[in-house]
Design goal:
With 97 residues, the protein is α+β, with helices and mostly antiparallel strands. It has a domain of 66 residues. The strands form two sheets. It has a three-stranded mixed sheet with strand order 2-1-4. The chain has a two-stranded antiparallel sheet with strand order 3-5. The two termini are 28 Å apart.
């Protein structure tokens, strides 16, 4: 959790995530816009979650780990046509179907 807390305390990166309803298409699309530095910050965030779930000593290894982000609380995130960003890292043996 410290790695994630540290990443969210850094305000030198920014990501815009836009949900486009794709009216008339085959379903909504999600667009993720960021520079290379910000992509790396997001990758570090996802890696920290995965490392925690892969740690057999951590309770998340049994149940996974969920994080929810309200962009109003995190200036690094801008959501368009969405109100909340939810990340759910499941344990390796979870059924993903």
């Amino acid at each position: 959790m410290n790695a994630i807390h540290e990443l969210m305390e850094q305000h030198d990166w920014h990501v815009t995530i836009e949900v486009d309803p794709n009216t008339g298409g085959d379903g909504p699309r999600v667009r993720f816009d960021a520079d290379a530095k910000s992509f790396r910050r997001v990758a570090a965030l996802l890696t920290a979650m995965a490392d925690t779930v892969d740690n057999p000593e951590h309770p998340a290894s049994d149940v996974g780990w969920q994080l929810g982000f309200n962009p109003d609380d995190h200036p690094q995130l801008t959501l368009k046509n969405a109100a909340f960003l939810y990340l759910n890292c499941l344990p390796n043996d979870a059924n993903l179907a």
